[in-house]
Amino acid sequence: MSEDNTTPPRRRLAAIALIGSLLALPAAAAEPAGPLTIARQGSFFVGGRSVASDTLSTLPAYAPSGTISVDQVYVRYQIPVEAKRPAIVLIHGCCLTGKTWETTPDGRMGWDEFFVRAGFPTYVIDQAGRGRSAVDPSRINAVKTGQAAPETLPPVVSAGQEPAWAIFRFGPKYPEVFPGMQFPLEAQAEFWKQMVADWAATLPTPNPTVPALSELAKTIEKTGLDGAILISHSQSGIYPFQTAALDRAGIRGLVAIEPAACPDPAKDDLAPYRDLPILVLWGDYVERVPRWAPRLKLCRAFVEAANKAGGMAELVLLPDVGMACNSHMLMQDRNSLDVAAWLAAWLDAHVPPRP
Amino acid sequence: MSEDNTTPPRRRLAAIALIGSLLALPAAAAEPAGPLTIARQGSFFVGGRSVASDTLSTLPAYAPSGTISVDQVYVRYQIPVEAKRPAIVLIHGCCLTGKTWETTPDGRMGWDEFFVRAGFPTYVIDQAGRGRSAVDPSRINAVKTGQAAPETLPPVVSAGQEPAWAIFRFGPKYPEVFPGMQFPLEAQAEFWKQMVADWAATLPTPNPTVPALSELAKTIEKTGLDGAILISHSQSGIYPFQTAALDRAGIRGLVAIEPAACPDPAKDDLAPYRDLPILVLWGDYVERVPRWAPRLKLCRAFVEAANKAGGMAELVLLPDVGMACNSHMLMQDRNSLDVAAWLAAWLDAHVPPRP
Questions:
Q1: To the nearest whole angstrom, how far is the Cα of A119 from the nearest Cα of chain B?
Q2: Which of B68, B127, B161, B195 to mutate to test the interface with A (most CBs of A within 10 A)?
Q3: From CA B141, how far away is CA A153, in angstroms rounded?
Q4: The domain defined by A39-350 carries CATH number 3.20.20.300
Q5: Quick one: pLDDT band at residue A241, thresholds 50, 70, 90?
Q6: Structural domain boundaries of chain B?
Q7: Is the CB of A156 less than 8 angstroms away from the CB of B141?
């Protein structure tokens, strides 16, 4: 049975009962088939600020001086024809981009399309300073031309595949594999190609992604949709909480998947989370990896404290709801669509469409 | 009348006659309306190589040593239900990403969706080292930690808005505007957010995007589609030519929109272009901007020489086919869908579906 004492039993049972009944999925979900019809799709930016620089370039073909825009967040969306549910916003983690939620490394349907087919308007972002969201290279050129000291260079990180192995919980250490682990390792080369250089440590706190998410939630509501559920992963785990603390407008619920951090009940104000449906979702093997076990513990403490303060928070480990052996990249695991279906049912139960 | 003596008159007339007849578009194309139905969509990478590094990180949370994958090319695609036409591959230019082809800065439908609705399987890439296609930050961290000299830093470029103004041909110089110019300048803030730091000058020649495009064309053909038409813009202008020179497999045609370069008939082998439909397409004001006039001249010389060598090349200035005042970003101009419809008709006439 569950190690998770923070979940109100009635709510959890309700969610479990909904699996299959709402979405009528078998134990191993088949990929939804047939053509996809969408009402509309597109992309745009939220956030951003102008920066003037004299070190934009060291190449003769491009002038060094001028203005650029940084800290904006790229957003791509698809709206289903029957958009009866709240929108979801999918926020990737460290060293990755919105690609996280698209076609899996082994070529199966991504969550981005699954949720559209399930009736959720779906927004996928690239965090500020990642992927299609621009960074400022001025400091690199300033150091290259002797105008700044080398130690002032931005701490840009790429996660190496071998050290990342345990972070993604493919196994305890590279190249060992947890028994039964569900990530499609035969397609790992395609997965490693998803990883990009990460400028997050060069950005202010809160990350500019946070106010941009607030702007996005309001934009979604103004579009006439039923508000937004912010769904983070890993390094972005805290962003939905920070966004709700900034402004609840447009936000219908928060989901933190394997978050790097939850709000700290010993330090953080829990009032912003009152009456807000919150799910903290984990895969398997969490207690067996030193990087993740303390984070699970902190999130448990948060959920308990938030509920005592009038919250509607729930922490779920997938093994406790019948899905074993999920890695940190559970949206790409072999049973990724089972997890998605479970999450869709949870959202229907806890963030129902407004009448 | 046309300054373009390189266009076979009969072919051009045929193309013009097709506008409206095939796509039944009025003079100012209305945005296609109604739900969009697609057979399938997704994303994946082509190309890429592994790099071992000991300077991936200067942060304690991430190990400095490990393997990363770089030089791969991110591809996102949508396949229409009636995919009777060859696939198109949309390749963005300098300092931009695949966002170039999506929703315009003023919120209109992008070419990515227009062409899907017109029956073309449509693939949008992020060039190697741009957007969702990873770069290697090792040298930055090596310099930051004193293991390499500052002058060895990668020449990463961001294009400043003021100097880019003339490159995009919004006007002769910032902030002047060419009379009647069609770019939606009221939405320029959204456009500037599309621009990202550009690592192209750090990559080998040919750019890894070129062999990746060749792999993509073959993948598209293997998928059972009718081959690929490579459509480049600006800085990527030469890539379709380089790809065809590398391997013609899977390639049905080349379109270079406002290319930074065409093959040089004085130096380059023209044999790879024999019997291959090629279009070099330009907007307006080209002769009035010193950066672009010589490039137009080189492309004219290429088209003439390619045709003498058995080619099927054509150079078109949009004003000569009834569309005036287009900027360098013609896929985002107010009449962007008119241009797209003209291009779709040209493709139907010159790269007809295989029986």
A1: 14
A2: B68
A3: 8
A4: no
A5: very high
A6: 39-350
A7: yes
